[in-house]
Amino acid sequence: MEASSFQRLLYLLQQETSSTELRTECAVVLGSLAMGTENNVKSLLDCHIIPALLQGLLSPDLKFIEACLRCLRTIFISPVTPEDLLYTDATVISHLMALLSRSRYTQEYICQIFSHCCKLQHWHSCGFKSLPQPLLCANGPDHQTILFNHGAVQNIAHLLVSTSYKVRMQALKCFSVLAFENPQVSMTLVNGKHKVLVDGELLPQIFVKMLQRDKPVEMQLTSAKCLTSMCRAGAIRTDDSCIVLKTLPCLVRMCSKERLLEERVEGAETLAYLIETDVELQRIASITDHLIVMLADYFKYPSSVSAITDIKRLDHDLKHAHELRQAAFKLYASLGANDEDIRKKIIETENMMDRIVNGLSESSIKVRLAAVRCLHSLSRSVQQLRTSFQDHAVWKPLMKVLQNAPNEILVVASSTLCNLLLEFSPSKEPILESGAIELLCSLTQSENLALRVNGIWALMNVAFQAEQKIKSDILRGLSTEQLFQLLSDSDVNVLMKTLGLLRNLLSTRPHIDHIMSTHGKQIMQAVTLILEGEHNIEVKEQTLCILANIADGTTAKELIMTNDDILQKIKYYMSHSNAKLQLAAMFCISNLVWNEEEGSQERQDKLRDMGIVDILHKLSQSSDPNLCDKAKTALQQYLA
Amino acid sequence: MADAGAGSLHGGDSALSCLPEEQELSQRLRRLYPAVNQEETPLPRSWSPKDKYNYIGLSQGNLRVHYKGHGKNHKDAASVRATHPIPAACGIYYFEVKIVSKGRDGYMGIGLSAQGVNMNRLPGWDKHSYGYHGDDGHSFCSSGTGQPYGPTFTTGDVIGCCVNLINNTCFYTKNGHSLGIAFTDLPLPAMISNQFMELLQEYIQHLFKSNLYPTVGLQTPGEIVDANFGQQPFVFDIEDYMREWRAKIQGTIKRFPIGDRLGEWQAMLQNMVSSYLVHHGYCSTAAAFARITDTTIQEEQTSIKNRQRIQKLVLAGRVGEAIEATQQLYPGLLEHNPNLLFMLKCRQFVEMVNGTDSEVRCFSARSPRSQDSYPGSPNLSPRRGSNNSHVHSTGADSPTCSNGVLSTKIKQSCSKYQALSSSSSSSSSSSPSSVNYSESNSTDSTKSQQHSSTSNQETRHLAFLSFFYLSDSEMEMEAEHYPNGVLENSSTRIMNGTYKHEEILQTDESSMEDNCPQRQLCGGNHAATERMIQFGRELQTLSEQLCREYGKNTMHKKMLQDAFSLLAYSDPWNCPVGQQLDPIQREPVCAALNSAILESQNLPKQPPLMLALGQASECLRLMARVGLGSCSFARVDDYLH
Q1: Residues 6+ positions from A56 with CB-CB distance below 8 Å
Q2: A365-381 tens-digit pLDDT
């Protein structure tokens, strides 16, 4: 078909003077053409078919409207059509809402159009939102909000009980898209200001009915998605029976071998999302219908049987193999997020670690990401870090993933690396030998906040009880400049982890003196700055702890003793209203007045002159036993 | 050693049925397992005090199980089985056990076992025994070594066990969550196999040994568990699981492949419909159907019409005319079927009592044929008087006699009436040609009898009865039938019910005013009554004659006895045998006559459609008996709309 014939048909369609029969026929033919190849749809879009069809919706003739809607539906469900085309004219949505009452066909097509033209409010990756990543908000209100503001919930709700299955199904799909990660819609579906009742029932009740096991699988699955969104948005409690006894079991069933591959993928992804942050749901899912074993089956595609027997089947299996694997990894990640016993069960599943290792090096980004996520979840187990992680040398493929990976993978992978770099992890050493410090230092310079946090966090873990050489490597790799950059980072997480890193660097006396001899000036400056700045208690406490560490050095002490400004600050915090800060300041004093060390007499005198002893006396009467103890110990130094 | 105290409670399956909990249980079981014939295969309702090891104690209506042994080692294990095995007709069977206390070690097993399996063991350890154990969460499939299966369970948990008799699997639940399949090879009958002998063998095996009983086993002191066989709502949504399987099985039926024989199927279906129409004499419908589907009708048009006419007569209660017509159109038929003839004559007698048969109707003012559409009340004069004389006694209800206005009270009582006797409104719809003649009979007359026991009619009744009674000494009638049980309450109900019908059937309301309908023996006509008595004697003679020729026939005797019993009551419509007067009772007679005619014409005496239906029902019954669980989700009723 040539563009010219498309244009001719469109021309006829738009002629107000032609008979409605003819115009209707044109819409029908155009609709059939749109069902053809993607190129057909592209050509039709180039001919501006959408405005023409939208114009047609203003006709008084229902048959013509239906034909236009059918054609619009076909065009909008094509992946080549930009969703935004529906929202170019503000009146279109309200007109479509009005047409919802006309016939079961308008209902079906309009719901279908809505559910395909509703881009999600946020950037999201496969249903996961747990990452501390800024949300990319589009300019202006998003599609969900536009539809919501046009009364989509009220207008579509009653279609859930339509006599036509197709209408019910499309309305349900519409809700599953509208409610996804949208608290506003989700809350309205549950109660809202104007309770939405259909046949005297609340919408969640209707969704639960649609979950019944004799309903079509498609309906059960879509309904479970609606309830999942509502639960994740906080509109339904996670311990509500409709979640625990209905939605969750339904989603587990969707993962069973009896379901189609597509359904199994969607079921696992939705379930992963549902249980992601609730340990009780994770526990229930883990015992339901042998889910953990059932998921192992997701890795068996394409099966050796399908390769031999049936080319068509092989093709189908291949197409879904990646999707299945990533869905399984995601669900394993959610299952093992919090409970040690579940993690153990997952790792004991046949060839689990091998599968993760293989997943880490797959070409598909989606699979790699999900595999890293799974690994991340499992890396929270001390026991697993020491055993299976080591046995399978997981760190090797992980380090490989970290090279040149897109940010979304980097975030999870570096977070996993943090855990692998904990001091008790046997992987720590080989990871450092393979150049991790350099990599982590470069992460701290990232634009991406999560990467900065993970980079500095990992360095903090590396520095914990590390040898001198590693500490020097870190300081060298990071550079003083970068260290100060991080100390003035706007994000409190970055600041905290950087202070943590400093504290870990400044431990054991020789290390303290060494570092302070090279970076003393800058560090003292930074400490002063933070103590003077507007920071929360935790940050100040951490900073005072750094000072206490410095005060523990042999030569480093002098950096404090010669700095009256700092001494005054320590004195100030000794009388602070917060006990934690008082205690941290006391550590400094305690270290400074410690008897056995050289020059302790002068330091004691200087501090007495500052009125510190008076404060110590006062604190020794404190009701806080920690403070009281610490003050008494310090005072004893004076007596000796 | 046996727990004698608990034993006394056993066997309460039917005896306890009056308790509210028991009623609730029965109700739930009926709802869950509608296909189970509980008289043939009772459902488990409690633990058996007989089928248990000594270390087991039962309490709380044999639902609570506690351990009372030493519990030193596995040799001290003890189990108890339920009172009955799980019937295959359940399709899907489910019970729950609540762990009241895990006792010392929580060595509890929940599962199934066949009759005869050692009770000094936990379920699962032996052949034909299956269990899920609380201490390690393992499943035991007829073996001493368990397989990792699910989580452990302990005090407060509710463990459910579901047996799927369709695919012979079993899964457990914990606190309402399905734990997944535990056993896949339960010794229940196998799925349909192509090899018939193999199948048969399996059935036989099943029938003899592999009926599984719900079973629990305990092993350490302090262990207590409570069973729920349906006494309470289940924690797990078993009905949802059943819904899934019902849908699956109905889907299988729906998608049953018919392949390339599609054309044949269509022809067969058309033939079934056509033959059904022809059989019942829906002449023009059958003709129209044949025309549209381009098929031919085996039977000739006139033959169908004849049968239709005869059927109409029977359904209208004009049995005498029906017999006449049959003899005319199908000579020799009734002579060759003395049983049928006797049945017809008995019915004719009943219809005479009813006042419908033409032999008594000819005494009325109207011609019998005109009464098909109009429930006339012939010969009103004698009743009129009594009617009027009792206006005061019927009280508030009487004014409604003369007009069509019904108070709500009347409507209520009317529905009561319909519920009381098998409703005549339904019969009027199923057999449109039959006449609800009953409406023209008086209830007031019964009242009059009540007030004046010297009424002619009553004395005649008694005299008449004694005549029959003496003539057949073998006929045993209970003495209580003699005195007239006049039911005052119900008589008013009937009167009210009558009005209701009048309102429906009669468009001309004004005509009701002088036709206050009342039911009376033989339409209340003296001559008719005489004729009826005469006919009764003839019938008696016929019976004796048949008895001489063909020997005693208990069926005949019963029929005759029932028919004559009607006369023992002043209000036959409202007596223990009054059901016979219901027009719906004409239908079996009509069907028998129709079948006989068809048979004489070498046509099938039953329409193939009904045959298929009967076969399907019988097949399902057979499936239940041999243990094919899917029968419970494929009821014939589901397909009849």
Answers
A1: A13, A14, A23, A27, A64, A65, A68
A2: 899 999 999 999 998 88
Q: What is the dihedral of CA B285, B287, B289, B290, to 10 degrees?
A: 160
Whether residue A423 has pLDDT greater than 60:
yes
User: Which pLDDT value is given to residue A129?
Assistant: 38
Is the per-residue pLDDT at A536 higher than 80?
yes
Interface of A with B (CB under 8 A): 212-214, 244-246, 249, 284, 287-290, 294
Task: Indicate the length of chain A as a whole number.
Answer: 640
Q: What tokens appear for A117 in the block?
A: 């033209």
Nearest CA in chain B to A290: B180
Nearest to B244 among A214, A284, A288 (CB): A214
Give B75 or A308, the one with higher predicted confidence.
B75
- In three-state secondary structure terms, B364 is coil
**Sign of the dihedral through C-alpha A233, A235, A239, A244:** negative
Task: State the ipTM, two decimals.
Answer: 0.81
Question: Inter-chain contact B240–A288, Cβ cutoff 8 Å?
Answer: no
pLDDT of residue B199: 61
Average pLDDT of span A415-440: 85
* Burial label, B507 (beta-carbon count in 10 A; 0-12, 13-18, 19+): exposed
Pairwise CB contact (< 8 Å): B177 & A213:
no
Residue from the list B176, B178, B237 with its beta carbon closest to the beta carbon of A289: B178
* Cα–Cα distance, A342 to A381 (Å, whole number): 10
Q: Which amino acid is at A370?
A: A
Task: Output DSSP code: residue B637.
Answer: G
Mean pLDDT across chain A, nearest whole number? 86
pLDDT confidence of residue B202: 59
Residues of B in contact with A294 (CB under 8 A): 180
CA-based nearest residue to A635, from A600, A626, A614: A614
Cβ-Cβ contacts under 8 Å for B634 (sequence gap 6 or more): B249, B250, B253, B620
Predicted local distance difference test score (pLDDT) of residue B519 = 66
**How crowded is residue A64: how many other Cβ atoms within 10 Å of its Cβ?**
22
Residue A112: the pLDDT is: 94
For residues A487 and A481, give the distance between their C-alpha atoms in angstroms, rounded to a whole number.
Answer: 10
Cβ-nearest to A213 among B151, B180, B240: B240
Question: Could you tell me which of B452, B591, B440 has the C-alpha nearest to residue B521?
Answer: B440
Q: What are phi and psi of B82, to 5 degrees?
A: -75, 170
State how far the Cα of B78 lies from the Cα of B109, in Å rounded to an integer.
10
Instruction: Round to whole Å and give the CA distance between A22 and B595.
Output: 61
Helices B586-600 and B338-354, packing angle to 10 deg: 150
Q: Write out the DSSP string of A221-287.
A: HHHHHHHHHHHHTTSS-TT-HIIIIIIHHHHHHHTSTTS-HHHHHHHHHHHHHHHTT-HHHHHHHHH
Torsion of CA A169, A175, A176, A178, to 10 degrees: 150
- The residue of chain A with its CA nearest to that of B173 is A288
CA dist., res. A121 & res. A458, Å (int): 32
3-state secondary structure of A497: helix
pLDDT at residue B438 above 60?
A: no
Nearest to A405 by CA among A443, A435, A377: A443
Phi-psi region of B180 (alpha: psi -120 to 50; beta: other; left: phi over 0): left
Q: Which pair of structure tokens corresponds to residue A565?
A: 């400004």
pLDDT at B119: 93
B174 neighbourhood in chain A, CB within 8 Å: 287
pTM over 0.80: no
